[in-house]
Amino acid sequence: MLINTEQRAFRFEIPTLLSFHKCNVVLEYVASTVPKDRFSSEINYKAKDNNGTHWFGYRCSIKELNSNLSLYIHFGFIFLPNTKVGLMVELDRNNNLQVYEQIWDQIEDSSFYKVNKEENDYLKLFIPDDHLSQVMEEQSAVTQAELVQKYFISCCDALLRAGRKGNK
Q1: Which of 64, 67, 75 has its CA nearest to residue 36?
Q2: Residue ranges of the domains in the chain?
């Protein structure tokens, strides 16, 4: 909903759209090419909230290979005013009811991500700002994908590990 008091118009340059497209390609690649010896990751292309008014990314199911533990996550960029903006992996309560509280209690910061618990129903693991800057400064999309995939795998491993600890 556009409020009359919001006078500031949006602006971007056309090359930004092309960069946005490349970002989408990288995120899709990262989420769909996780080494199968770790866990499985499957993008839900039919999810209505893959992209939204404050979100750009993918809904994914991640499943630990040696157990029945499965999580439904968001992976991508959030740009909601009045919250932290950045690249994140998010676990939401409603889609992970059986393990959400356990993971919330068990998850800890890492050098690959910072835990954000500002909203009770959304556990967010943000890539640290200096790591995101490193990704953005890279000239190669391949190198960017490698860096982002290290982050993504680290987040997914941590969420699954925390869920496993809680289920013992």
Answers
A1: 64
A2: 50-163
3-class state of residue 140 by DSSP: coil
Relative orientation angle of helices 141-166 and 129-137, to the nearest 10 degrees? 150
Please state whether beta strands 86-92 and 70-78 pair in parallel, antiparallel, or not at all (unpaired).
antiparallel
Taken as a whole, the chain contains a residue count of 168
Decide if 158 contacts 152 (C-beta within 8 A): no
Q: How confident is the model at residue 162 (pLDDT cuts 50, 70, 90)?
A: very high
Give 57's pLDDT tier (boundaries 50, 70, 90).
very high
- The separation between CA 56 and the C-alpha centre of its own chain, rounded to angstroms, equals 9
CB 40 within 8 A of CB 65: yes
DSSP 102-138: HHHHH----SS-EEEEEETTEEEEEPPHHHHHHHHH-
